[in-house]
Amino acid sequence: MYIRDRIFQKLEEMDMTQKEFSEKTGIPQSTISDWKKKRTNPTAEKIMIICRVLDVRMEWLLSGIEPQGERGNPQKWLVVDGDTEAGGLLRIFNSLDAAGQSRLLGFAQALSEKE
Known about the structure:
There is one protein chain. This protein is mainly alpha-helical. The protein has 2 domains: 3-63, Orthogonal Bundle (434 Repressor (Amino-terminal Domain)), CATH 1.10.260; 85-114, no CATH class. The chain has 7 helices and no strands. It has helices spanning 3-14, 18-25, 29-37, 47-54, 58-63, 85-95, 98-114. The chain is elongated. It starts with a helix and ends with a helix. The mean pLDDT is 87.
């Protein structure tokens, strides 16, 4: 199954029309139609907005693999939307020097153990 197939599968599950999907993503209807008619896939820059609108994980959209469950290998990487709180936290972390990063990690670890 290709990316385009998973998109149309999810649209059907959500009972969302291509027009509604176009309005929510800002992707022209003609482009969405081309995915179906010409059997093409969306460009890389559209993937995050598609995931957000369809409420799916990027791993699923790109590969069809669900990261949960006992099957498969644990992921060694994360994909984070930069417009979320997690994305903001990563931007702050990346702006710090090594000592600041270490302090922030220590704080986060202590906070998570408290919960």
